[in-house]
Amino acid sequence: MERIEEGIEDTREIIKGKLRQYFDGKIVRKDLTKKIKEGANVPVYVLEFLLGQYCSSDDEEVIEKGVKNVKKILADNFVRPDEAQKILSTLRAKGNYTIIDKVTVSLNIRKDQHEAEFSNLGLSGIPIEDSYPEKYDRLLCGGIWCIIQLEYVSESKLEEDMLSGIVDIDGNPVQSRKKKSKEAVSPIRIVKLTPIQMPHVDIEELKNARRQFSKDEWMDIMLRSIGMEPDTLTCREKWLLLIRMIPLVENNFNLCELGPRSTGKSHLFKEISPNSILVSGGQTTVANLFYNMGRKTVGLVGLWDCVAFDEVAGIHFKDKDGIQIMKDYMASGSFARGKEEKAASASMVFVGNINQSVDVLLKTSSLFDPFPPEMGTDTAFLDRMHCYVPGWEIPKFRPDHFTDEYGFITDYLAEFIRELRKEQYGDALDQYFRLGKNLNQRDTIAVRKMVGGLVKLIYPNGVYTKQELEEILQLALEMRRRVKEQLKKLGGMEFYDVNFSYIDLEDMSEHYVSVPEQGGGNLIPEGLCNPGQVYTVSRGKSGMIGVFRLESQMLPGSGKFERTGLGSDRDAKEASNTAFSYLKANGNRISGSISTTAKDYVINYQDLQGIGMTGKLALPTLIALCSIALNKPVLSSTAIMGEISISGTMIKVDELANALQVCLDSGAKKVLIPSTSFADFATVPADLMSAFQLIPYASAEDAVFKALGVE
């Protein structure tokens, strides 16, 4: 154990030495950020801007002195909303004051001037030089944190300034001639405004320095730069955290991450990058997000590199066409408003919480369930997601998950990531690999974007081996396949091609990539069930195809039939009555030992996937009644499909291919299918047909015999 710890410490020292050598002045000790952050409600990039100026040293005395300076600056200059009036009073008394605040600029057309609004100071309508919004366009949308030197000009001085150079008809200077109608002019002026951002980054310098680090060292540096300690994470967890960063480095990348709370899903987009904006609560408008036709201004997607939506369950557009415009933008990077089409490069990120375990979600609905219904069931919208990060695999963060080691100053990280958006590495995989035939155009674009994004983050100099690229490609295929698997659940056979693969061009071998969570916890269990327990697959009330379970009991009685779990569903009740009536009339043809007069029967119906109870329950109910009456279980891993009428006429299966796909996903090994559905076999892919033992039946009695394994 001691040797392992020594090895970790040695690695840290090696990385620290290299960082000092190749990135001096661009790194900061992250424990300093952590210490001050706990007591100051400012974004990390604001803190590290100050720490980079005052604490860029290994000397503990210099660092300690620098930390004191930063704390003093934050105490004296950072504006807390509850101290705004105190600062304004100090500004008036001293005549000038430097503050740290978030500044937003707007154009006052009536006065023909730009005006600044201070977020925490509570001031608005303060004139600002046109050069600032021209140089820093983000001041005009959303605002940015700045260090601002303010000046307070007294009323008499203000009047002198206004009248300076004005003379009367005789050429004498005008004295105080204050007009009552004169508009009030703010006594506060902006002397200097400095955005808290790094100057332009030399990307070639970064690429050259990257050559001095191994892959693992660089991954550790990137993770420490966003505040995480890689030594507490597994290799897979490291990759998942890095995948979160792809929207910052790749244009028009759509990422979704749903998982438990406290896994830092929104932290990266809110605190780490000054180039992304987090839309909290999900409430927004088309004008705010895309284009304001009244003001003729582009919204958030045109001014930020990444727009992240926190708490996807609450996403709501006040405009009816909001989701349609978002779909258009997510697919093409452009949107039409008014008479013209606008293009933008912002990536879209959707993060939210999963309230159930993944196993339960996979059984009962889809992994997109936390989305609002208009998004979570819209396959066209979900198909535009390039990547689904499995948030449940990322650990809940504890204090030891946050690093005390050196990493890049957040501003430097954000700026070089932004520079890398201009480069493209999506074709990197073509040198060694080819994508399999099951990937359609959208799948291919998604995988290429992910490969390009991860190459930029880990190998910004473009130097990597075949094995390193293969590792990235496998991750990219998995993240996209996760989206496709859920689309298959929601959209059926349209999204059947989920067996993603890649072909090694060296030996032309094909390698398939799966998703870890698939295949676990089947709805239809293996092995024999209890007598009277039946699984059926059919269309539910919502229109989706799902799995339903019937559990039966037989008691001494007088021939009563009770049903539970159906509520007030009329169709389901009628179907179950049909089955009992059929059994009464034809029970002797099945077995002489079935009694419908001396026994009472109780059946509980369960909608296992929450899609609304099915109305096609006559045949499953008949089989369940016969199974409990004869004390004989149904064949193991069997799904019942099809339906009968009151006279015993067979009714074929709706959407046979989709229904069989649900059977496969639910764990069925055998499928009882009516012979009337044979005509639809041509619509079922061959590999899906071969996944089951298909058991055809020609009548209701035949179905009962074959379900119970009676020859």
Looking at the overall shape, the CATH architecture of the largest domain is 3-Layer(aba) Sandwich
CATH homology superfamily name of the largest domain: P-loop containing nucleotide triphosphate hydrolases
What is the tally of beta strands?
A: 30
> Per CATH, what is the topology of the largest domain?
Rossmann fold
CATH class category name of the largest domain: Alpha Beta
Distance between the termini: 64 Å
The percent of residues in helical segments reads: 25-40%
Instruction: Work out the radius of gyration.
Output: 33 Å
Low-pLDDT runs of 5+ residues are 165-170, 176-182
Strand content: 15-25%
Figure out the total of helices.
26
The backbone outline, from C-alpha atoms, is elongated
What does this structure look like?
It is a single chain. This protein is α/β, with parallel strands linked by helices. The chain has 5 domains: 28-77; 83-159 and 185-195, OB fold (Dihydrolipoamide Acetyltransferase, E2P), CATH 2.40.50; 203-423, Rossmann fold; 443-512, no CATH class; 533-708, Ribosomal Protein S5, domain 2. Helices cover 38% and strands 20% of the residues. The strands form 10 sheets. Strands 4-3-2-5-6 form a 5-stranded antiparallel beta sheet. Strands 8-12-16-7-17 form a 5-stranded parallel beta sheet. It starts with a helix and ends with a helix.
Task: Provide tags for this entry.
711 residues, OB fold (Dihydrolipoamide Acetyltransferase, E2P), Rossmann fold, 5-stranded antiparallel beta sheet, 38% helix
Topology of helices and strands:
Blueprint lengths: L1 H21 L4 E3 H8 L6 H11 L5 H18 L6 H11 L1 E13 L4 E6 L7 E2 L3 H5 L8 E9 L2 H9 L24 E8 L7 H8 L4 H11 L9 H9 L2 H4 L4 E6 L7 H6 L3 E4 L3 E2 L1 H4 L1 E2 L4 E2 L1 H4 L2 E4 L6 E2 L4 H11 L1 E4 L2 E4 L3 E7 L4 H7 L8 H4 L2 H4 L4 E4 L15 E3 L1 H11 L12 E3 L5 H18 L7 H26 L9 E4 L5 E3 L21 E6 L5 E12 L4 E4 L5 H21 L8 E9 L10 H13 L7 E3 L2 E2 L5 E2 L4 H11 L3 E5 L11 H4 L3 E5 L2 H8 L4
Parallel strand pairs: 7-16, 7-17, 8-12, 9-13, 12-16, 24-25, 26-29, 29-30
Antiparallel strand pairs: 1-18, 2-3, 2-5, 3-4, 5-6, 10-11, 14-15, 19-20, 20-21, 22-23, 23-25, 27-28
